[in-house]
Amino acid sequence: MNDSDRNAYVACGKALDYLMKMEIDGSVGLERGSVYGAAVAIPQIARSAGWSGTMMALAARSYFFLILNILVQGFLLSMIGEEANIMHPYSSRMHLCDFGANLQDCPDSANCNGPGGTTMTYSRLYDYTTWSTRKFVGEALTDLFPNRAKDIAQFADPGEYGLEDYYCRLVCCFIFSMAVMNELYVTLGLLRLLWCLPSSDDKWVRFRPPEWDADKSRAKQIFGWTELDLVKFGVAGLPVYWKVINFVVVFIPKMCLWTVLVSSGFHFLMETSGIVDVIMNSMALTFILSLDELVFFSPDNCARQVHDGAHGRLRAI
Fold this sequence. Notes:
Elements: H1 3-25, E1 28-29, H2 35-48, H3 53-90, E2 125-126, H4 128-144, H5 149-155, E3 160-161, H6 166-196, E4 205-207, H7 216-223, E5 231-233, H8 240-270, H9 275-289, H10 291-296, H11 301-311, E6 315-316
Parallel strand pairs: 2-3
Antiparallel strand pairs: 1-6, 4-5
Helix pairs in contact: 2-3, 2-11, 3-8, 6-8, 6-9, 8-9
């Protein structure tokens, strides 16, 4: 075995040993690139620094963007709920259910009748907006020319409202469920972090290990380090009152938004009939989950550097 192969085998063994240890023992940490992680980390770094003016401003801004994110996500979710639970009933829109699920077997199968009471076929299948418009036109013509009702029913057939593809809806619901389950895992990880951290007033930031005092200049020359490279961030003890604050301000809103998103999201997907529409809606609902990352990247570079530098090491095993 040559040195290159031996080196690769050793590296793979070390990586697998570390990954298996993490899988068995578990790990907790804060979200990177999220306003939720910043709202936990930045105030603790400010507390460790003695609440200096700059750090207090960054901590206040982290809470501002947390509140902004909660308001934006909550507003979008309320609009989805309003559409599904208020606007649809007011427009007399029936639930989609499984209309058209067995369309490929019609008319020689069960459940082949649509909401209009006629047999569904591919050529007579429409989305709700098109179907309701065609139905309105047919009813209006019948009211205007009641003596031509049979001709109107034949030549102005409204068709039926139903699913374009049943399995596409299942796949999109599965994709959405994977996204929300990952978000649930991250949210519960925050709760586990608050539970596992010791309730002590420890520092989350320090400047180089004390044993490097004599060799700091030499280490900087060898590794090309700057003073910033000697700043070390790490998850440490958290006083009880800070645990309560983070639980109330960060965890509870995050969990509530997740619950509403799951409820409204699956309802919305189950009421979407078109193939392209259900795919786009599943992606749009997943995008709402990532708004916390989008809002996080709106502060300037200074806040991002402090947060990213901290979260490079803010892990607790």
